[in-house]
Design goal:
single chain, mainly alpha, 10 helices, globular
């Protein structure tokens, strides 16, 4: 497939904007994949190329949030263990999967998540002190399995489930959950990419400028998240989750 300089410019500009949004909530693949499909990439190639850009989206905020001591490694590491394993299996399934039914299921869950947050106006605004006992580590490991599998298949919206799980189950604030989600999301995306590369489903001509622009945008998004705090992230989170839910369902 040939792509023009103009199209690369459009993709890079979109990556800059989406990177800023992605640093706060993730889920940029929900926009990137349809955009790349519009430019003529097959769906698997659009997903594979988009996944490469997620590396740029997550690595800069992960470093920035860690420097601000917002990343809870005791939570992120056990979650990542099973997520890494199931993400690889998800990428194997993604090569031949018709994702229509899966999209409807994810859309319904996103509506439920938004409803829970709207019904509980204080959720995610104040940290609930939770000691990481063996039980909490076990829950984190179990939670990582389905999220990792879904992230391996597609990935669009996976960060929503990670953030929500960290808030609801482990008492994180929105800012803490966003910061902590970067490490597992970075790892599970990285482990799922090789399958797409081996099958030739990554267009590097698009992936490289898209990844660089997304990384640049994510730096500004991370700074904005720290500056504006939990109420700002909560509003962005609910609004975008509802938009993504409608996209999946409609």
């Amino acid at each position: 497939m040939e792509i023009s300089v103009l199209e690369i410019g459009i993709v890079s500009l979109a990556g800059l904007v989406l990177g800023a949004m992605g640093a706060i909530i993730g889920s940029t693949l929900l926009v990137i994949v349809p955009m790349l499909s519009f430019f003529g990439l097959p769906i698997q190639a659009a997903i594979g190329t988009g996944k490469v850009s997620v590396i740029g989206r997550e690595i800069i905020p992960a470093i920035y949030f860690h420097s601000k001591k917002l990343v809870k490694l005791s939570l992120a590491i056990p979650f990542s263990i099973t997520a890494l394993i199931t993400s690889w299996y998800g990428s194997v399934v993604a090569i031949s999967l018709d994702a229509g039914i899966l999209e409807k299921i994810v859309g319904i869950f996103m509506c439920i998540i938004s409803a829970i947050i709207l019904i509980n106006p204080k959720i995610g605004l104040q940290e609930k002190e939770t000691k990481m006992t063996f039980r909490h580590m076990a829950i984190s490991i179990i939670l990582g399995a389905p999220v990792g599998f879904y992230a391996g298949i597609f990935g669009g919206g996976a960060n929503v489930f990670i953030i929500f799980g960290f808030i609801l189950i482990f008492g994180n604030t929105f800012l803490q959950a966003t910061a902590t989600s970067k490490l597992p999301n970075l790892l599970i995306t990285a482990i799922s990419i090789p399958m797409f590369i081996v099958k030739g489903f990554v267009n590097w001509e698009i992936a490289i400028p898209l990844t660089l622009s997304t990384a640049a945008g994510s730096y500004f998004g991370a700074k904005l998240a720290v500056k504006k705090g939990n109420k700002f992230i909560r509003a962005i989170f609910v609004g975008l989750v509802l938009v993504f839910a409608m996209k999946y369902l409609i």
